[in-house]
Amino acid sequence: MKTIKGGISINRSRTNMFLLFLATLFFAGIILYSYRLFVWGLLPLIFLLTLYISTNKYRSSVSLFMFFLLGTLVYQLGSSYINEWNISIEMKIIINRSLLMFIMIGTVISLMLSKQKIFFFALLPDWQRRIKMPFHTIKLPYFLLIGLMVSSTILIPLYSQEIRDIKTILLFGMVFAIINATLEEVIWRGIMLSSLKRNVSTFYAVVITSIGFGLLHISIGIPVIISLLFSFGGLFYAIVVLKAKSIYPSIVFHIVINLGMVFNGWII
């Protein structure tokens, strides 16, 4: 009996080390590509390809990380290219956010090659559902209302400042928020979270997608420390998606926060 328990403990330890190494490669790739260190960024890809060839149990997760990074590489190359265009900063930002489509395409290709179902919590929320909290339960509409109120606090500073050319800012803010929030949520809380959740623990899936979500903000010029703070936003969105079993509430919350960032001058 002791031998069996010891063997299980060793296997679990090896599995944890493997998943930690896998996460490290993934995060390293995001950071390197975000700083446009494309040659160095090939190293995590090479390691992931080696793991993909040599392992069976977590091959689908390795593939997901590998194709995500390939999509990130294309995204960054495209971003570098459009930075040379003689267009407005607003237009560059909109196109930059639209290029996130390449990351989404990369993850979809990975799922197709792994013959896994493409699932991203696209069902509408069940409004009769009750959400389990640590000490009580709460109806889903009330849970989402609280989340919306928390997200909307980012709009409060608006009332203390003058906004110039409100129509232009409002139009840019809406286009930016819808494109950015939808693509980021579909990629992170949709495809990545649901796919990882099928193959590893929910805890691992939430941690990876939350930290990865934060780190990818380095690519748009946000410092590392602040980008890591964005991971708490990713954690919040992940909890909303898992509790509501729908991606739409997190997209709405994300849109509200992005609007606040634009209106407060944090984007331009």
List keywords for this structure.
268 residues; mainly alpha; two-stranded antiparallel ribbon; 73% helix
Give a verbal description of the structure.
The protein is mainly α and 268 residues long. It has one domain (2-263). It has helices at residues 2-34, 38-54, 59-82, 89-98, 101-113, 140-152, 166-199, 202-215, 224-244, 248-263; strands spanning 130-132, 137-139. Strands 1-2 form a two-stranded antiparallel sheet. A hairpin with a 4-residue loop joins strand 1 and strand 2. Helix 7 (166-199) packs antiparallel against helix 8. It is globular and about 60 Å long.
Produce a short descriptive summary:
By secondary structure, the protein is an all-alpha fold.
In terms of topology, how is this protein built?
Blueprint: H1 2-34, H2 38-54, H3 59-82, H4 89-98, H5 101-113, E1 130-132, E2 137-139, H6 140-152, H7 166-199, H8 202-215, H9 224-244, H10 248-263
Antiparallel strand pairs: 1-2
Helix pairs in contact: 1-2, 1-3, 1-8, 2-3, 3-5, 4-7, 5-7, 6-10, 7-8, 7-9, 7-10, 8-9, 9-10
Count of discrete alpha- or pi-helical segments spanning 4 or more residues: 10
Spatial sequence of strands, sheet with the most strands: 1-2
Amino-to-carboxy terminus distance: 63 Å
- The overall number of domains is 1
Low-confidence stretches: none
Strand content: under 5%
Helix and strand string, N-terminal first?
HHHHHEEHHHHH
Radius of gyration: 20 Å
- Shape, per Cα inertia axes: globular
Helix content: over 70%
Q: Average pLDDT value?
A: 91
Structural category: mainly alpha
Largest sheet: 2 strands, antiparallel
Find the count of extended strands (DSSP E, 2+ residues): 2
